[in-house]
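User: I'm putting together a small comparison set for a docking exercise, and I want a reference complex before I start. The sequence is below, and the ligand is xanthosine-5'-monophosphate. Could you produce the 3D structure with the ligand included, as structure tokens?
Assistant: Of course. I'll restate your input first, then give the structure tokens for the complex.
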Amino acid sequence: MENKIIFALDIYDHDEAINLAKNLGDKVFAIKVNWPIILENGIKIIRELSKYSKIICDFKLADIDNTDKLITEKVNEYNAWGIIAHAFTGYKSLKAVVDSAKNTKVFSVVSMSQESYVDDITDKLIETSKKAGVYGLVAPANRPLYLKKVKELSGNLKIISPGAGSQGGDILNALLLGSDYVIIGRSIYNSDNPEKTLSDFNNSIRNSFNI
Ligand code: XMP
């Protein structure tokens, strides 16, 4: 069965991160890294972690096209499977990410797990994302109305959803509403037994969806 959880590895410590990746990497769809782990350990950690799972770089690119391109090329060089970019910077920037990503999958943020100005332009962001040729969209697990809206407009793009667990959303509900994969960080790495917590999540997904 396909794993439905993307593990958000938002910790600083190198050895702890590698250990978590070793133990959980084959039981998640991917591991998502964000600035905290990169700022502490440097970009090389992406390659190290990629031994254990697909790695999605949640760098939320939001710059001019050339800078976004330079960052995407670097991420690509270090063996990332995916990268997350903002869509609000517009077509030119997002297209630069898609064009420089090569085989790396590009996900664009079209709705956030916290209220933001992006809420007013979600439709436009989805339209721009489709035009730029992204692989998938980021939409919130903890805001069902926004997730539903994104699902309705997403066509065949994949949807990945943060906001479950610590931010209040429900994993099963998000999958029912159309998320392909749910992103979970603190609820796993802050638990007493991350392996068991993940295994409980996976079992409840399997039991509910017969997969
Ligand atoms: P927790 O610990 O809350 O981690 O389970 C969630 C992870 O997802 C990121 N995050 C977002 N990423 N759009 C995104 O692209 C969002 O709306 C959003 N909300 C949370 C967060 O940085 C953490 O890595």
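The chain has one domain: 5-209. The chain has a mean pLDDT of 97.
User: Thanks, that's exactly what I needed.
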